[in-house]
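Task 17 of the worksheet. Students: predict the tertiary structure of the chain below and write it out as structure tokens. Keep your answer in the requested format; marks are given for formatting as well as content.
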Amino acid sequence: MKYIYILLLLLLVSISCKNETLLTFETLLIEDKTCENCPVVTIDIPKALEKTPISKNINIALQEEIITLLNFDETTNVTSIKTAIASFNEGYTKLKDKFPEESTKWEAVINGEVLYENKDILTIALDSYIFTGGAHGYSVKRFLNFNKKNGVEIENWELFNTKFDFEKFAEIKFRVQENIPQDQPINYTGFMFEEDSFYLPENIGFTKEGIQLLYNQYEVASYADGPITITIPYNEANKYLVTEIKK
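Model answer:
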């Protein structure tokens, strides 16, 4: 019986140690209801709580992304989510004053989630939908990767031992997934890669299933095609990664 207690104790210690490597987040929910005729703005993102460099950098990075999405006045110094929302509202007001017949209300919905985390790496996915008139709004997803050891955001090229080698490998996987013959140009089936040459997307992130490559709408295909994703399992991708991911 005592051996069972020992095993249970070891299991609890193991779980506790694993949880200690994870950051603590709370939900930051912002719903702007300035006025009845103002744009609808809803923001739901994770907020890191620890007083550490990594938590500070995560919160700053998310704020900067939201500012970029909502700021409609490049001449104004927008330094917070609150002032970014004000800029978005002002952009709508100016358009409505100029074109009173344009009555369609603007909308911004931004959602964030922790997509993957281990002791070394953290990936946050930021989904946004922005509608400022026209036939349809614009949806885009951003991956933000962070090095938990030094607390800084990771650039895509820093993810790989050799970006060139991974890019060649990813092209093979992409062609297989999208049924593009290996001996034909990458745009053979209708894709729109510039200069008809494969390249990695701007968004690369870690998921539980593997490293994911995300091409947003318009990036390499038409709007109707939607986003294009390819997920490469870690047992295939690890030899290219600076940080090996163990499932």
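Marker's comment: Residues 2-20 form the longest helix (19 residues). The domain at 20-153 is CATH 3.30.565.40 (Heat Shock Protein 90).
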